[in-house]
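ARCHIVE CARD
SHELF: 3
SLOT: left
DATA:
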Amino acid sequence: VSMEDLKCTKFGEPFVFWLKPGVQMAQIKRVLIVENLSFFHTCVQLLEEDLLDYEPELIIYGEGKKIERSFSFFFKLFPKENYLFYYAGDLDSEGYSICMRLIDKYQECTIQPALKIYRKMLDCMDQANSETGQVRNEIHRERFFSWFTEEEQNSLNELWAAKNRIPQEVLTIETWRRWM
């Protein structure tokens, strides 16, 4: 039995989000999508303290690869506008691929890596750990790396060659304040 025979419609799954206090839905211009729950809560706190780069009006908890299935839900909730979406995931092969697949799937949107956040993660190279069990897509890696400076690309290539990763959880309130 087909979906049409059942008269079914496939909907995007809802995601968790946080709207900046005092901002109306029609005022949203910048959206930050983060991969990890702990960093989502960190971003909320940083934004409340006016310490978060990008000054997003909305933060979405992407929940890893789940954002690829749930992103379409955004357009059911929010007005049809031109938004600037920043994506920040782990610095690892799966994180690179999630970002590139979002860009490819939603070409009508402006989606780009959250470079300032990734640069802060690169400052935590000493906290890199082993990347195990991840699909390594070299095309996604090259496209993701192209957003960075040559020096940053060298660090990213070092991580890739060593099969290491930097999880988003390295960015806490305390580590973030070091850069202030």
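SLOT: right
DATA:
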Amino acid sequence: ASKLTQDGAKVEVVMTESATKFIAPLTLRNITGRPVVTDMFELASEFSVEHVALAEAADVVAIAPATANVIAKLAAGIADDMLTCVVLATKAPVIVAPAMNVNMFQNSITQDNLAKLKARGVTIVEPGYGRLASGEMGLGRLAEVEEIIGTIKQVLGRSGDLAGKHIVVTAGGTQEAIDPVRHIGNRSSGKMGYAVAEAARDRGAEVKLITAPTSLPEPAGMEITHIETAIQMKEAVAKAT
């Protein structure tokens, strides 16, 4: 919510009752500068009487984190709180970023529910591997903020002026091995190439990023090919075009 607001987005926050146990609505209100919706029947809310107004106003609906419970409700079409009502009523693209215990995520019921959502056009931001709230290591961590925001920008850009275009971008400095330890390279950071690739993605293009080793996080919403040498770069570009 903070990053999107800093990027100039108008962020409307909808919180389930369970979400308010983890973070106070006031915190998100201060971050976004907008009222936080927590109750369908709160008369003071501008969206309380007709919740479809919020659904119709949305350009994209992003649920992050999405629990197994919310995912199950969406798959079944249940609308028993403000969040599920908004999703059911909106015509905007929906993005779901699951986060839960590894066993809950890998449970066949959860996987079936995610498959149903994908089949209905919902975009899933896959969770990462790491330490979970239970202390276990496994798949179920909420995806990184950059990946979620990158996916949101990709979805919003589908109708941009580069929609339908295929763009290949190269980035980073190639490395020519001298021996198993040393190589000849250059100081290219890859930042310019990554920025160009992200800008093209945000304007609706189908982007293929061919990148030499960098310290940059992988951008979301594009096909990425990792190479090391100039010959590998040449071959990857020829294949991509």
